[in-house]
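Morning. Coffee machine broken again, so started the prediction first thing and wrote up yesterday's gels while waiting. Chain of 118 residues, entered below exactly as on the submission form.
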Amino acid sequence: MHIASLTEAKNGFSALIDRVRAGESVLILLERMDALAAAWHETQPVASVRRAARRLLRVHALRAADALQLAAATIASEAHPGPLEIVALDGRLIDAARRESFPVADLAAGGSPARACG
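Came back before lunch.
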């Protein structure tokens, strides 16, 4: 199962544009994002998610929207990441998710989960 916050679609598009500017194929990246989007569950930034996001902002070098995404996954997983997978393109979000013990589906790596946690 993939967890995506309400703002992740905008962040994903922004990250895709960055990758295209770096020379990657927009069609391949869009296909990967569409495949992942078909399986993710979207969450809303309720009070518990906002509290978790504040903690994540204190301990990781994240942007606010990325902290909300990771916080939503933390709340949805009831602090047991296990099978929940973070969908990400941003290196800072990928690093923070791994440090929080989440598997990561990195679109740049073909969308397959990078299960190593650092």
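The first strand starts at residue 2 and ends at 5. Going to sketch it on the whiteboard this afternoon.
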